[in-house]
Each structure stands twice: as C-alpha cells, then as structure tokens.
Amino acid sequence: MKRKLVEFIYKIINSQFYKDLYDQNNRKAFLGEFKFLGESHSFPDNMIIKNPKYISIGNGFAAMYNLRIEAWDKYGEQKFFPEIYIGNNVVFNTDVHIGCINKIFIGDNVLLASRIYISDHSHGEVNSEALKVAPVHRKLYSKGPVIIENNVWIGENVSILPGVKIGSNAIIGANAVVTKDVPANSVVGGNPARIIKVLV
Fold this sequence. Notes:
14% of the residues lie in helices and 34% in strands. The protein has helices spanning 2-13, 16-31; strands at residues 36-37, 47-50, 55-57, 62-63, 67-71, 74-75, 78-79, 83-86, 91-92, 96-100, 103-106, 111-112, 116-119, 122-123, 140-141, 146-148, 153-154, 159-160, 165-166, 171-172, 177-178, 186-189, 194-198.
C-alpha cells in the first residue's frame, strides 16, 4: 500500500502538469528580478539573461529564440555598474547578443533583425601591451556607452561596437559593423559602416 502511494505521488510530481506549473513559477520569479519590466512582453524559452537586476525593459517587448543579454558587474577582480535600458515596442529577432559593463540604451520602436551583436566593451584595449596577455585574461575595457535612439532599424548580422550613438530613424544595413556615430535619418552600411543615404 505504501509503495503504491509513493508511486502515485511520484507520477503526479513528474506529470506534465506539474512540470509546466514549475516552469511557470520559475519564469515568474525570474521575470520579477528585472530592474523594470513593462507590460505585454514575450521572451523565448531558450535565453541567457545575466543579472536582470541591471536591466530595464519597457512595454511591448518581444524577442525570438537564442536571446542573450549580459550585464557584467564583475569579471575577475574587476567590478562594474552596468545599465541596460530597452524602450517600448522593441522587437528582437533571433540570435541577439548584448553585452554590457557600462551602459547600453535602446530607444522606443527599435527593430533588430537576426544575429545582432551589441557591446559597450572589449577584452582589453587595442595596444601592444594587451598582446602580452591572453584575450580571456585581459581586463574588460569600455570606450563608452552605446546609445540607439528611437525608430532605428538594424539589419541582419550587424555588429554595433562601444562608444557609438545611432540617431533616430537610422537604418543599419545588413552585415554592417558600426564603429562610429550614425546621424539621425540616415542609412549606413559596410565594414566599417559609412553613410549611404540621408533620408531627410
């Protein structure tokens, strides 16, 4: 009798209903860890979010699979005070990777295509001294925050590097590597990205 009771309880605990309930509770607890999280958001099942306590996300956020957002407050003996802000009605397609030790700001109504990399830092400064240390052991270094203003469209396979400001309504063409500021209302493309067209 005791064995049958144990088997019955085991089946209940391992049923799909309880697994779903456990996943829902864990997800709710996780979403509660953000610095701020607006209404009507959609996160994928497979994602990596490091230190959500430094991340604010507005209303109407949607992201597809393989989302990776990392706010690094510590790397080796280094300490940082990262800040990631994502505005309202922002959409990430697949494979978006954001890394922050300083500040990354993404305004309202920004659309990111797939395989996007945005970082405000690098492994070491670009100089001969850094070459004496393996990349993984170099101190993280930020040239400055990344600011992406409202209504920006970022195309497929784009990289946005530290210390860059992208003005409102800009369009970043596919495969671009953005190393310098992008004026508002402009289209840029290439590696490094250059102005192709001014829209206004």
